[in-house]
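ugh ok fine here u go
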Amino acid sequence: MTDTDPATTVVICAYTERRWDDLVAAVAGVRAQTAPVAEIILVIDHNPELEQRAAAGFSGVLVVPNTGRRGLSGARNTAIELAKGDVLAFLDDDAVPEPDWLEQLLDGYRDPRVLAVGGAARPVWPDGERSRLLPARGAGTGELDWVVGCTYTGQPVTDTPVRNLMGCNMSFRREAFQLAGLFTEDLGRVGRTPLGCEETELCIRLEQASPGALIVFRPSSVVRHRVTPDRLTWRYLRRRGWGEGISKALVSRSVGADAALSTERDYLRRVIPAAVLREFGNSLRGKGFSGLVALFVVVGATAAGYARGKLTRQRLRIRVSTPKLVHGPIHVATVDIRDMPARLQVPSRAVGHYRAAQVLVRDGERTLDVVLLPVHRGAVRLDLIGIGTPAVAPKPEFERPLISVVIPTAHRKDQAVESVRAALAAGYPRLEILVVDNFPAEPDGDDRLRGEVERLGARYLVEPRKGVSTARNTGAVASTGEFIAFLDENISVEPGWFDAVAEEFVADPDVGCVTAMVLPASLETDAEVLFERLKGYSHTVRRQRLDRETVREDPLYPLSMARYGPGSCTTWRRSTFEGLRGFDPLLGAGTPAMSGEDLDLFVRLARARGTVVYTPHAVARHTHRADWLELREQMRGYGVGLSAMLLLSVVRRPIGVFSIIRRVPRGMARLASRTPELPLSDRAARSRLRQLRRDERYGMLDGPLALARAWKRHRLDARSRPR
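structure:
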């Protein structure tokens, strides 16, 4: 294991107190792993008594109720929406992992094409010996061991790409749920009802959404799955086969019969006939015929269940992987774990009321988590956060370097003044602040803005050439600091922001840029909430180092803007910024291209083998567009800027077109991901989400022409500018 291994969330779902001892053993097995576990989430499926017992019995485990439909799929989806890990590993409540279980799973992700890794399940028989009811060659695996949730004859014995994984021992990259959606809640075990195939259906959808992706089975990753006596009866074999057949019929209706039955056809052609011949020979030699009968019972019940399932008209409903969308305003709050109450009282609003709260959890100036919690009767239960007292290293002492802060402004000059005030209030001793007026009221500048800025101790500059890139470059040239922080006018940094940024630069001289966590300043209007769901910047609370090794874990790098964080709140080492010749004036707000300047600079840094560090401890607040029409124009601008940036990148470096083409399928899959699910009654919000997606895609069509107009305007500005 290395420091670059992804943070992992282990998910365990439970529904009954009858398995309490098994659940205790499963949690203990996860805690004994040789690989570090970032968090453990235990989801209780509609059993309040078990939930209370688990919350009291497991310290350091996030115990939550299933907020979806009753059943295993709903419980897993609940965990997915809460998990913070880059990899999510799923373990049954009656399965105990081997000490290297997680380490073996994570080793499978060395190949960036791998989106899911699963392992083997070895049965733990009631009496310690294999049941004679299930056929097998000796004491090894048997052809029907899948009936009791274990590895069966016919599965690979070495690391092999497969169609689907076993539900009791599987893991997925977070990206997999963004591409394929969540587990469908129309499938999956509900209590003791032996339905299944939810992981099969999800894996098939994942392969269809990302054709180049790999799903890998690693038999070296092992869990011990307990087999209860009630599963070793003829009645259970019939019910399990019947449920499997019905589930397979539903899956084939959803993803197509060829995909749903490809593995099963090979199993019936190759594995079952060999088992029938072997068991028939055993019966002739007087070794009993229970194995032969079991083969016919299970296969026959499965075929009958499949035929019955084909007659139903039921269709699977697929949920997408996004945090639950809350219709209406969301309260924004910050709490410190050192002095955190059990309940947070939410202020009342003049119109309507809050249904949820986005809570930033900090330990002093260190970020621990960002969670979305329900508001009930005007209050938020903070004890649901599930964070104990963390062992956070003390903030190191270092000599604070001079940081120059460049704040370009055009139409929101009052916000620019507030941004200056927030920077001064951040508590950093060595700051130089420059406000660049990119839309002056007069050729010599805006006297009112100049007066307010200079009274605060900042410098006021005028740049009449339109474009945020030009304004930023002008501020950078006039600045004197070793590091340059670029803050948009609608960004307000919080206390400790500059300390967290400077700490990264001082600790590592190879770092060329530091990006920050940016949270919404408010989520009062539908436009603000929708933007946060579609383009929100609070993507992770884990520090990330992005360099040439990142492409191993993210095939889209360096074109994955979400990995960097927003360019509207970044700090650059001056030597790095000047070596890249700053922002490209053809891109960005104020130009026909409208955006794309920040990703363009990140891509150029990546090609120069530079390093970006994202730190969640530097927190800033962004004022989202509150107006619906402004938000639509902003989304269109993102599309325009993206295609313009890609075209400009190819013009500069034609050989780079092959790198872009190689990333197009995965990028389009992300861009065309399904719209986040909303309550069925909220049709207007669903329609607006689809409209925003269309605006972004249509904007991409305008990118080439916008780039041509930007180039023409830049040439005219260059000719008219005095030498």
